[in-house]
Amino acid sequence: MQFKYNLVVGAVALGLAGVALAQDAVVRIGHVGPTSGNIAHLGKDNELGARMAIDELNAKGVTIGGKKVKFELLAEDDAADPKQGTAAAQKLVDSGVHGVVGHLNSGTTIPASKIYSDAGIPQISPSSTNPRYTRQGFKTTFRVVADDVHLGNTLGKYAVNTLKGKAIAVIDDRTAYGQGVADEFEKGVKAAGGTVVAREFTHEKATDFTAILTSIKAKKADIVFYGGMDAVGGPMLRQMKSLGINAKFMGGDGICTGELPKLAAGTLADDQVVCAEAGGVEGEEKKAMDDFKAAFKKKFGIDVQLYAPYVYDAVMVMATAMQKADSWDPAKYLPVLAKTDGYKGVTGTISFDEKGDLKNGALTLFTYRGGKREQIAVVR
């Protein structure tokens, strides 16, 4: 009996060993975004974009280095807080991730980028627009959206040349993103010959803007630009209406979300808001974006908020570089990732320059009509 038992145990052990040998190699992709806090809706949107890409890659059965690989998403919450962001980055490094897509905010992306750089792990941000991110001399930093220089400057010129703003007020939330895009907007206004009558500051968790808006009203501003996120932009719009300020409201991609009308509690007038998303497609490329949004809603039961398509593309670009390099070792696929040129994504064609910035990045201008976001134009 003992002999027969040993044979059974041995057979089981050999069988398990065979299963282990047959198991897929695991490639770990990290994702970080604020899935708690006042912009959790945007962080979750990002995470779902990553999950959609991971699921599609696994459904395809990707082979790298002669092995079938299983992609695994390691998702972390940074709550849009720089300290929590660096902690999340270190956790991912310690977990042995092979690449990272994130973070959402420039204020968390920039400090986290040094941790990834020191570890030699490629990082693609799907939404961080502060120019400093890719200008630190790191070889590991990339982004799939245009930066604040392009976005802010374009909006500033649009405010003067198209909207005919005569007295323009600028507000920012003092974050790396908010202040950065507001600074570039102000430069764009001045370059177009416009006048900035007020520069005010708030913070990313503020709820009362009475003092700064009263000051702006006294200066008869006809355009108010806000550098920050929709969680503050919506309440600011409500208070503008209650104070009788009928100015146009402008902002970058942080306010340019499907959630803004809800956050503004139905106070948006048609065409009152003009905002820009740091990306854009038109013509034949628009069909790929529309198809993605339809597939996203079918899969998750909710609409895309903002950055999910960019996260999806970032994961796919990273996986494509691994396949081309025939390795998921960061040291081996990083040089291939840096040479990405002409990748056809749902957000458009992706090519990186020597800094890791998107070449010829597009911007899409939007407004809101009937509580729905509508595209105005795509500019480059």
Structure description:
With 380 residues, the chain is of the alpha/beta class. The protein has a seven-stranded mixed β-sheet, sandwiched between helices. It has a six-stranded mixed β-sheet with strand order 2-3-1-4-5-6, sandwiched between helices. The chain is built from twelve helices and 15 strands. The protein is elongated. Helices cover 44% and strands 21% of the residues. A hairpin with a 2-residue loop joins strand 12 (343-345) and strand 13.
The outline comes out as: elongated
Just give the CATH class of the largest domain.
Alpha Beta
Mean pLDDT: 92
Q: Any idea what the CATH architecture of the largest domain is? A: 3-Layer(aba) Sandwich
First-to-last CA distance: 79 Å
The count of helical stretches stands at 12
From the 3D structure, determine the CATH topology of the largest domain: Rossmann fold
H/E element sequence: HEHEEHEHEEHEHEHEHEHEHHHEEEE
| Approximate helicity band | 40-55%
How many strand elements?
Answer: 15
Number of domains: 2
Low-confidence stretches: 1-22
Question: Mind telling me the C-alpha Rg?
Answer: 23 Å
CATH homologous superfamily designation of the largest domain:
Response regulator
What structural class is derived from the secondary structure elements? Answer: alpha/beta
Spatial order of the strands in the main sheet? 8-7-9-10-11-14-15
Largest sheet: 7 strands, mixed
Please state roughly what percent of the residues sit in beta strands, choosing from under 5%, 5-15%, 15-25%, 25-35%, 35-45% or over 45%. 15-25%
